[in-house]
Amino acid sequence: MKEELKTKRQQIAELSALRRRLAEPKMSDSSGERLKEEHYRLLFEGNADGYAAVNEDGFIIAYNPAFREMVGYSEAELRGMTYKDLSPERWNEIEGKIIDEQIRMGRYSTLYEKEYQRKDGSVFPVELRTYLLKDKKGTHAGLWAVIRDITDRKQTEEGLRASEERFYKAFQSSPAPTFISTISGGRYIDVNDSGLKLLGYDREEIIGRTSRELVIWRAHADRESLMKRLLADGCIHDESIFLRTKAGAIIETLWSCEIIRVNNEEVMLSLLYDVTERKQAEEALRGWEQLLMHIFDFLPDATLVIDMEGKVIAWNRAIEEMTGVKAQEVLGKGNYEYAIPFYGRRRPIMADIILNQDANITQKNYSVLDKQRDLMVAESWVPKLKGARAFLWAKASLLYNGKGNVAGAIESIRDITDRKRAEEALEKREEDLAFKTRELEDLNIALRVLLKQREGDQRHLGEAILSNVKLLIEPFVEKLKNHADPKGASYIKVIQSNLQDIISPFARQLSTKYLNLTNKEIQVAGLIKEEKTTKEIADLLNISVSAVSVHRYHIRKKVGLTKSQNLHLYLSSLA
What we know:
Helices cover 52% and strands 22% of the residues. It is built from 22 helices and 16 strands. The protein has helices at 2-22, 29-46, 65-71, 75-79, 90-105, 151-173, 193-199, 203-206, 220-233, 276-297, 317-323, 327-330, 340-343, 350-356, 359-365, 417-481, 486-503, 506-513, 519-529, 534-541, 545-559, 567-574; strands at 50-55, 60-63, 112-117, 123-134, 140-149, 178-182, 188-191, 235-244, 250-262, 265-274, 302-307, 312-315, 367-371, 375-385, 388-400, 406-415. The strands form 3 sheets. It has a 6-stranded antiparallel beta sheet with strand order 12-11-16-15-14-13, with helices on both faces. Helix 16 packs antiparallel against helix 17, helix 18 crosses helix 19 (519-529) and helix 20 (534-541) crosses helix 21 (545-559). Mean pLDDT is 80; it is low at 18-29.
């Protein structure tokens, strides 16, 4: 760009010098012709625009330095080239028609745009006008042209188009209803889709018409009043206005407007923000706030809320009943006023502790059940709740506003004095029970000692009986066997067997292990163990053989023997 300006300045200087020479008096005709030739040479060679001439066959026969620099070819290369060699192929047919029309009309061509292709293959846009070349007879001998490189202009135009396109896309896609209108009368020049949707019109219904014709303003006088402010200040921001939709509904909007210049004309750029839904949402929010306050007021637990300054902003009915202090007496008060009903003095409570994260106060005054960053659950005794000592459970938590910042703290309190006293009574009973348990354990130890001593006495007694049987009875039984008849010998053998049971208590072991055996079955089992036959058992017990068989069957069933198992061997194993 700097080089181009320098070249143009040089051209101006040279042309000025030429004009001064032409203006000098008493110049000869030959000198004048030379000056004219010099003038044309300077225009041809020094111009920043390209000049080129072609013969009737299209071959390049003359050009200026600007043209050669423009296309990037050397003088030798250009001599053998036609104008078609410099154009992309798609332009040949188009340009041929332009040249044919020019020759037919016998005049210079219209100014048109096309593309040239440099030696390096790059394509650039040019603006071009061609003139006819005629020989001395006045017949067509070729063309000459003025060529201007318009790359910078095209880039500027493209940038402007892109900028306009981006603006228009942003204008149309903006979620904010946007209007462009004239200042006088408010005639709509353009409206984006959001604006059409807001008012319920189609584009052709609103473009070119005024707000007054469409009766868009609820009161046109409002517009006139605001227009005076707009003309005085140049802009209006977030002004509440009421507009009428195509369907006739009245909507409340916030109007922002600024006077801008488009194509050397001042127009209004208006942005609307429909606050109808917001107003409805605010009303709904107020309803919810009222509902939440009712819910808060009827919470079963005594609850209070303090702000960041420690002032009470909520005090429900349950805490009124617990403390005897009405909400109007404490709302808006700080300086630990809310602690007086519990402690009889001003001091931090759990809501203050969680708000200020004061660990020292927590450890000193509360038994903490759960502690997190923004929540704490604890228990403690308070001395002055309605004049009496009470044990309270409390839960405190941080409160956050809509932006996620801490806005205060809430604390819920429950009087669990009765439960605490019941727990203490239970602990006392458990202590008493533990004491009695220890006494019983001591008594149990003493009983075990006594039982052990009794077992020892029984063992000594058994040993004494065994010794007496062996010393005082068995010798005489052996002597009787020598003097008894066969039947008496059998009785003596039974006596010996029974004495053996006394010494080795088979019957006692059998009856202890199998409690469902009868006395007779125990007698039969003892004789089976002594290898007595069924007939011998029947004779000894004075019962029939079939009765012995029945007893044998019952014994096998009660001790759980199968048919393959030997009853005598099993009973012998118990001895």
